[in-house]
Design brief:
Shape: globular
Mean pLDDT: 84
Distance between the termini: 80 Å
Largest sheet: 23 strands, parallel
Helix content: under 10%
Structural class: mainly beta
Strand content: over 45%
Length: about 425
């Protein structure tokens, strides 16, 4: 056999061997090769724990998964791959994080099932039900039940999360699904969230603690958020920002619906920090909120400088457009109410605007905006009775439903959510 034939057969053998090896499932998974055409198939919790490979791979849930074993003491890690939840659920997840550090010995503040979603990664069509996340951390914490921090160039869609989150931290961002992130759509949460800061400010929301830049759409939340603590004197930098959807927003948010009850209490902690609390957003610092509805109740003491709004607590810059706020606000304390509580906005700076926004004056609000600077805002006031008889509102798009016996609502997805919507 001449040299040319030997080379030919060697190449043929290596090719066949390579193809054969590629058909063998990874030892960590019972099926699949981790490619888009043949994703790793996940059938149990043991397999799910192995999805944080630093090499991007494709994964798919084959069935509902129940968490088993001792509670996680740290996130699974950074998620680099592509996860198709296939409409399946992870149930009874338990995470208890107490001063954990990275393998390199550094303190890591991103916490959740995953610490981060890396650039280029994606998670779609997954449910996390009856989960529990407990965090005690001396530093700045970024906490979400699914992911601590989401890269803006990752994809997060069609997620439902329910459960309980408790965070004690120096300061940070805490959300029902994402601690900090942007560019996600169709997220729903039903969360009981309890947050105490030991020093500075916290941004907290039913979906996310902070949404920075980008665009988010079709967000729904229900449950309760309790927030307090902090010892730093309040100024524009240091104030708790809490909202039914998100605490702090600098991006564009459309089609958001919140039925979250907010409880803001600083009095019991004997400190000087205050609140920006809104039925949808605690603090809007740029961009806009539009086509959105707030329904949850806001309860707050007025011991310190506090701004409360049916939709947004404080707008330093940005626009609030085509929004309906039917959130009652209950207060206690000694401060005057006229300049801190608004039917739609608590406080608005001169670089902000509100147009075609509605609130219910039967709830006792003096005005749509409690305090604004150098800019007459455009707003509308309607009574509860009028709301229940409306068949349309100008410039409210076709996601709004006026056919019910109660308030108008938003049809923005088919994921279940509790409440009277």
């Amino acid at each position: 056999m001449n040299k040319a034939w030997r080379i030919f057969f060697l190449i043929l053998f290596l090719s066949i061997f390579s193809v054969s090896c590629s058909l063998i499932p990874d030892k960590d998974f019972s099926e699949g090769r981790g490619t888009e055409e043949s994703p790793y198939i996940i059938s149990n919790w043991e397999e799910f724990q192995k999805v944080t490979n630093s090499t991007p791979k494709y994964y798919k849930l084959a069935q509902d998964i129940e968490f088993v074993g001792e509670p996680l003491s740290a996130p699974l890690g950074i998620f680099y791959g592509h996860l198709d939840g296939n409409g399946k659920s992870i149930t009874n997840l338990k995470i208890i994080i107490d001063e954990w550090t990275s393998a390199a010995g550094e303190k890591v503040g991103n916490m959740g099932l995953f610490s981060e979603m890396a650039k280029g990664s994606s998670i779609d069509d997954i449910r996390i039900e009856d989960a529990e996340l407990l965090v005690s951390y001396a530093g700045e914490a970024t906490v979400g039940m699914l992911v601590g921090e989401k890269d803006p160039n990752s994809i997060l869609t069609n997620v439902f999360v329910s459960g309980f989150i408790s965070v004690i931290a120096r300061d940070g961002r805490v959300g029902g699904i994402v601690g900090k992130g942007t560019n996600f759509t169709n997220l729903t949460s039903d969360i009981f969230l309890d947050v105490i800061s030991s020093d500075y400010d916290v941004n907290a929301g039913g979906i996310a603690g902070s949404i920075v830049g980008g665009e988010v759409d079709r967000l729904r939340s229900s449950g309760e958020i309790h927030i307090g603590g902090g010892d730093t004197l309040l100024h524009d930098k240091y104030a708790h920002a809490v909202g039914g959807i998100v605490g702090y927003l600098t991006g564009s948010m459309t089609h958001a619906l919140s039925d979250v009850d907010l409880y803001c209490n600083v009095e019991q902690y004997d400190n000087n920090i205050g609140f920006y609390a809104g039925g949808l957003v605690g603090s809007l610092a740029d961009e806009s909120i539009s086509q959105s509805l707030s329904m949850g109740t806001i309860v707050s003491d007025l011991s310190n400088i506090t701004y409360l709004g049916g939709a947004v607590g404080y707008v330093s810059s940005g626009y609030v457009l085509n929004v309906l706020a039917v959130s009652p606000i209950i207060t206690y304390g000694t401060e005057e109410l006229d300049d801190v509580i608004g039917g739609v906005l608590g406080k608005a700076n001169s670089d902000s605007d509100a147009r075609n926004v509605y609130y219910v004056n039967d709830l006792g609000f003096e005005s749509a905006v409690a305090k604004f600077e150098d800019n007459p805002l455009y707003h509308n006031s309607v009574t509860t009775f009028e709301l229940r008889t409306l068949t349309s509102i100008p410039n409210f798009d076709d996601t709004w439903d006026f056919s019910g016996v109660s308030y108008p609502t938003l049809n923005i997805g088919n994921l279940p959510i509790k409440g009277n919507i």
